[in-house]
Amino acid sequence: MRYFRCLAGDEAYEQIRTTLDSVWGHPNAETKTVTCIDPAVVAPRDTQGRIMLATSEAFCEYAASEQMLASVLSSGVIEEIDAATYLQELPQIPVT
To answer: How large is the average pLDDT for residues 64-71?
Structure first.
């Protein structure tokens, strides 16, 4: 798994998501896949309200993902974080 935090806000995250969706032809009626990653409105957030994303290594290795990832990491739109940071910064949901 790889973990990321969006530093540039919901609009930048949505631009990334919709670009990737376009590359993969989402939504796809045949596979019933609506989007490749969660929309900003339902994406997990850290304690400061920034979108957090956990995704498989394989997803990051697809050509479109790999190219976009290199671009957004170098531009500072997102940052890669480790698993411990990801888990620590997500708000805890109480178990009832």
So the answer is: 90
CA distances for 87 relative to 25, 36, 46, 50, angstroms? 31, 21, 9, 14
Burial class (CB in 10 A: 0-12, 13-18, 19+), 53: buried
Q: Is 95 among the domain residues?
A: no
Tokens 């995704």 identify what position?
55
Range of the domain at 26: 2-89
Q: Which residue, 12, 17, 51, is CA-closest to 34?
A: 17
Residues 96 and 92: their CA atoms lie apart, in Å, by 12
In a domain, 96, yes or no: no
pLDDT at 34 over 90: no
Cα separations (Å) of 88 from 8, 33, 81? 21, 30, 11
Strand-pairing partners, residue 81, are 3
